[in-house]
Amino acid sequence: MSNVSSTLRQVSRLPAEPARLSESTLLLIDYQNTYRTGVMALPGADLALAAGARLLERARAAGTRVVHVVNDGGPGTPYDVRAEIGAISPQVAPRDGEPVVVKTFPDAFHQTGLRQVLTDLDAGPDLVVAGFMTHMCVAFTAQGAFNLGYRPTVVADACATRPLAGPDGAPLSAEALHAAALTTIGDLFGVVVPTADALPA
């Protein structure tokens, strides 16, 4: 007898199939230099960024709409979008015509123009989501998308997070927190796939 519970998606009879890349909009969340160096550097940032670059390349080849999201913490912070530290990493830099949405909260839909950008792009309900950090802006953007009626699919290897102390003060590894965040997303808010290759064209 299995000790693994049914997901809320299963109980609610929500779709289990991932989004088709060519019919989706790709949201790249906070692929900023913030997470590659300094106080906010993530242990798996470079590997996730490389996976994000492969995802972006495949999306562009499929004609997928692409939207970049950055977090602005203001001048002098690690999230200063006016400085090199807060810039989008060159591996996934926007091309002409790819919108960049600036946010100040973990949910990229909260007090931003993201929903209007998606409307202007004539985007459908399917979103493919990847970026930094898994447990924070990726998870809350997936939740925000779900709350608004979108159908997010999160690409696991194109996301990363950092180690933190758990509720009891014991260390929680980046890998454990990453897995827990993806599990939370997959329980209700969206479908999680291991890599971009798991997305149907």
Describe this protein's structure:
By secondary structure, the chain is of the alpha/beta class. It has helices spanning 8-11, 45-62, 114-120, 134-147, 174-189, and strands spanning 25-29, 65-71, 100-103, 126-132, 151-160, 164-165, 171-172, 191-193. It has one domain (16-196): Rossmann fold (3-Layer(aba) Sandwich), CATH 3.40.50. The protein has a six-stranded parallel β-sheet. The protein has a two-stranded antiparallel ribbon with strand order 6-7. Helix 4 (134-147) packs parallel to helix 5.
List keywords for this structure.
alpha/beta, Rossmann fold, two-stranded antiparallel ribbon, 20% strand, 6-stranded parallel β-sheet, 201 residues, single chain
The fourth-level CATH homologous superfamily is Isochorismatase-like
Largest sheet: 6 strands, parallel
Number of strands: 8
Helix/strand/pairing class, anyone?
alpha/beta
DSSP strand content: 15-25%
Order of helices and strands: HEHEEHEHEEEHE
CATH architecture: 3-Layer(aba) Sandwich
Binned, the helix content reads 25-40%
Radius of gyration: 16 Å
Our count of helices gives: 5
Question: Quick one: CATH class?
Answer: Alpha Beta
The overall pLDDT, averaged over residues, is: 97
Total discrete domains: 1
How would the global form be characterised? globular
In CATH, the topology is named Rossmann fold
pLDDT < 50 runs, ≥5 residues: none
Oligomer: single chain
End-to-end separation in angstroms reads 36 Å
For the biggest β-sheet, the strand order reads 3-2-1-4-5-8
Could you provide a short overview of the structure?
With 201 residues, the chain is an alpha/beta fold. 29% of the residues lie in helices and 20% in strands. The strands form two sheets. Strands 3-2-1-4-5-8 form a six-stranded parallel sheet. A two-stranded antiparallel ribbon has the order 6-7.
